[in-house]
Structures are given as structure tokens and as C-alpha cells.
Design goal:
The chain is mainly alpha-helical. Helix content is about 45%, strand content about 10%. Helix 1 packs parallel to helix 2, helix 3 crosses helix 9 and helix 6 crosses helix 9. About 35% of the residues are buried.
């Protein structure tokens, strides 16, 4: 509730100071539990975790407090990654220290699962574009237009780690959907993608190539693995 109160206080100050706009960076996972293949801003939000519920509550507080007073833009990035960030650290550690057989097995099972990653540089570009855009959002910010599945991301990371990626000949991903449902994961459809079509319609375009960004993260991890782990 401290974060919700902080959001309300921020909105009040924005009104008092006559702010021309407030840009709030939320998260795409406010959607909560969903089995949809494609998620966009019209997908109903059913937050499950405390984190998801809090993030959605902050959005609602800002919308209520600023409506008709200060323009508000809400951005909902997916899993943001980049040098110094925590997303992809676990996977990079697994790839750099795991056995080749273990890596191959995991790629056979998880290979087609969408990772829903977005490069931090592209999120920053969305913030910058929002400063001058008239539309208020919310806007999903994702790199799901690119090949963003586990197998592809793992191979790119291994290239950045100077490793030779295995190429499993067997696809065992058919067992993944029931495993996710049994685990009661919020996004139990492993092929769920988040659409960034709405923000692209405002003129936004990614500024970094997804594949290059993942390779660069692998290179950064290789140089800094002792500090990042």
C-alpha cells in the first residue's frame, strides 16, 4: 500500500504543479491469469499475485486522480532485459554452468515457450515517444514481433557466451501446456504473445534489434558473471 499511496501523492503533486503529462511505467503482467494466444490492451485483467494486483491498483489510482486534470500515459512493458538487469540472469547462469545434456533436454521441453522479453532500450524509446504522443494508453511495449521463444533466446545467449548451442532433434514441448496448468502458472499457454500494435500505431518503433540485444546480454554476462551471480 505504500506504493499505492506514493502513486496517489505523485498524482496530487502533478496536478498542483500543472504538469503537462505524467508517464507511468507499469507492467504487462497486470493481465494476470490468461490462456490467450495473443494479449493486447483490451484483454481483461485478472491479477493473481500481490505484485500484479498492486501494479493494477496503481494504474487505477493514477487514472482516477488525473482524469480531466493531467494527461496520463501508461506503458506496460513485458519482461525487460539488459546489462545490469535481473531478467535472463538465471538462464545465462544455467547455460554457462549446466551440462550440455541438461541444456539440450531443457531446450527440447521448453524450446517453443514464449519468453516475452523486451530490450530495455526499446522501453526507453517508448517513454521518450510518449512525451510527445497525444494518446494516453495503456500501451503494451514488447518485442514479441521477433522470435522470442526459449529455444531461440537460449541459442542467442550461448552465442554471446561464446558457446556452441546444441540443436536438439526432438521436440518435447507437447508436454509443456499441461505442466504449466498443473503448476497453476498465470500464463498457462506457453505460446502467449503480447501485442505492441497499439503503441506502434502512434509511430513508436524499436531502436535495437532483439537478437543483437540478447547476444549483447550474453557477452555482458560472460564479462561480469562473477559480479552478476
Amino acid at each position: 500500500m505504500d506504493n499505492v499511496t506514493a502513486a496517489r501523492n505523485t498524482a496530487e503533486v502533478a496536478v498542483e504543479r500543472g504538469a503537462s503529462k505524467l508517464i507511468h511505467v507499469s507492467t504487462a503482467v497486470v493481465v494476470g491469469r490468461s490462456r490467450a494466444v495473443s494479449i493486447d490492451e483490451s484483454t481483461p485483467c485478472s491479477p493473481v499475485t500481490v505484485y500484479q494486483q498492486e501494479k493494477l491498483m496503481i494504474e487505477e489510482v493514477l487514472q482516477e486522480s488525473l482524469k480531466g486534470r493531467v494527461p496520463l500515459t501508461i506503458l506496460r512493458p513485458t519482461a525487460v532485459f539488459g546489462a545490469g538487469g535481473r531478467n535472463l540472469l538465471t538462464l545465462a547462469s544455467h547455460l554457462s554452468s549446466g551440462s550440455r545434456a541438461g541444456i539440450a533436454l531443457r531446450m527440447m521441453i521448453m524450446g517453443r515457450r514464449e519468453m516475452n522479453l523486451v530490450a530495455v532500450e526499446n522501453v526507453v524509446e517508448a517513454v521518450v515517444r510518449s512525451m510527445s504522443a497525444s494518446s494516453e494508453g495503456p500501451f503494451i511495449v514488447s518485442d514479441d514481433h521477433a522470435a522470442n521463444d526459449y529455444g531461440h533466446v537460449a541459442r542467442l545467449l550461448m552465442e554471446g557466451l561464446n558457446m556452441n548451442p546444441p540443436r536438439p532433434a526432438v521436440d518435447l514441448s507437447v508436454i509443456l501446456p499441461p505442466l504449466l496448468r498443473m503448476a497453476r502458472r498465470e500464463l498457462s499457454n506457453p505460446y502467449t504473445r503480447f501485442s505492441a500494435a497499439r503503441i506502434r500505431a502512434t509511430g513508436y518503433q524499436p531502436v535495437v534489434d532483439f537478437d543483437s540485444a540478447v547476444r549483447q546480454f550474453g557477452s555482458w554476462y560472460r564479462r561480469n558473471s562473477s559480479q552478476s551471480t
